[in-house]
Structure prediction request, 567 residues.
Amino acid sequence: MNPTTTALRAGWSRGRIELRQSFTNGADLWAHFFWPTLMVVVTYFLRDVSFGGSGFLLGTLVLPSILGMNAAMAMVSMSQQLTADREDGTLLRAKATPNGVLTYLVGKIVSVSGGLVVDLAIFLVPSLLIVPGLATGDVGSWLTLLWVLALGMVAALPIGAVLGSVFTSTRGQGLITLPILGMIAISGIFYPVAALPEWLQWLAQVFPIYWLGLGMRSALLPDSAIAVELGESWRHLETVGVLGAWAVVGLLVAPVVLRRMARRESGSSVAERREKALQRVG
Amino acid sequence: MSVEVDGLRMRYGTNDVLLDVTFEARHGEVLAVLGPNGAGKTTTIEILEGFRRRSAGRVEVLGTDPAHASEEWRARVGVVLQSWRDHGRWRVRELLTQLAASYTCYRTPWDTDEVVAAVGLTEHADKKIRMLSGGQRRRLDVAIGIIGRPELLFLDEPTAGLDPEARREFHRLVRDLAQRQETTILLTTHDLQEAEKLADRIVILDGGRIIADGTAAELATRIAGEDEVSWTHDGRRHTRSTTESTAFAFDLFRRYGNEITELAVRRASLEDTYLALVNHAEATR
Prediction:
């Protein structure tokens, strides 16, 4: 068999094993259920709050936005897992195996996106029962949701991989949480972005979180909801443009950064990090 | 030749770690790179593994420069890494099967159950890796290193941090592997006894250079290898160091006959040789 095919198949099985592991241990299960459940609770409390004079309920607007935000968070999981795997030597093992880094990455993409789909379902299924007024009866809605999700993944995962390569310790990873929370705050997830000052609106539109939220709203909200959006349009073209641009940049930069990171891995660099981590504990 | 290293030099900034390292490993032999801590053993082996770029010199591993090696070359080389907590959630058999799959396009890897049995982990095959003891994890590291039936296996300080029992088991495992003679083994250690026990040939690395190269017996006789002869004559105890201890004792008896009592000959041990070599190298640095 061709080496690339072998690596892709090995990566696929690696990803499936990792995914299964993340649903069969307590700590991970907690993480899988905690955030979606919290978001269901938030949605529950927002279900009857009306948004200004638009005639829309905040809960209805927020549900698809949260889906978009969660999808963007795959970037963070990718980044965190990459850093953790580098620290503990998983990546070095991959490097010592033929085509192992490719296998590893394919596995990571499979397990992170698989985990995300499950997380989205954990949030979406109960929320649909709580929130009224969504356009869920239409096949077109679900098709839009699928392409937005797929494009969002292609944009988010390479950025996550780049971030994961840049931060060498799990501690450094903590640093990216704050800017990400800030980005969520300005991206119109919990409150429509039209209510923000104009310069913040522009800033929000640079990052993928806003566009993922918008794309999800365009999928699940009735067309009359565009009244709440910037330019009173779903702006699918712009969504494809911005997410596509992030995807292209990510796909160009990630292999370079990943290759550089992998090249630097050796037994002694892992040993050094182990020393450091043990000192931290001790 | 499995490994050829000629004039290897490694410099970090202005700090020379390796000055001029030259040695070879022949096909099928067990070669130990022995040296005190900080001698540059790990740097050397990481260059050979293709994990680190060298500053100068010629290096060939299985006929290829590891700095520009392909994935096909990677499949012929086994690396025993010191595991820490990677793949802690994976089960032993699961991880080995997963890793074996990566070799199938180049060569036939070990059957997972066979390799698990070879390293003595059969009863732990379905355990999660984080539940293994230190010695068991080390054996798993070896299983991972050999899963692709490598032509050459690297072991960097393989018994560091093992208790004496685990260490003995580990030595047995490496000797078993060596006896199959399919694999050239290159290991680093700072422990002389370990090198003596496992290796067909030893190269001693100190101060960035190879300061000796040979079998344990050759090293013991070649350099500073003086036996210590002691005897009693006329009620007085005498001691003499000599490289020709047998001839010296014969000469003693010829001269004094049975006036010589309590004759003892202590052979130069490899340890004496090693310490003499390292001390000499440090003094002339």
Notes: The mean pLDDT of chain A is 90. The longest helix of chain A spans residues 100-130. Chain A has twelve helices and two strands.
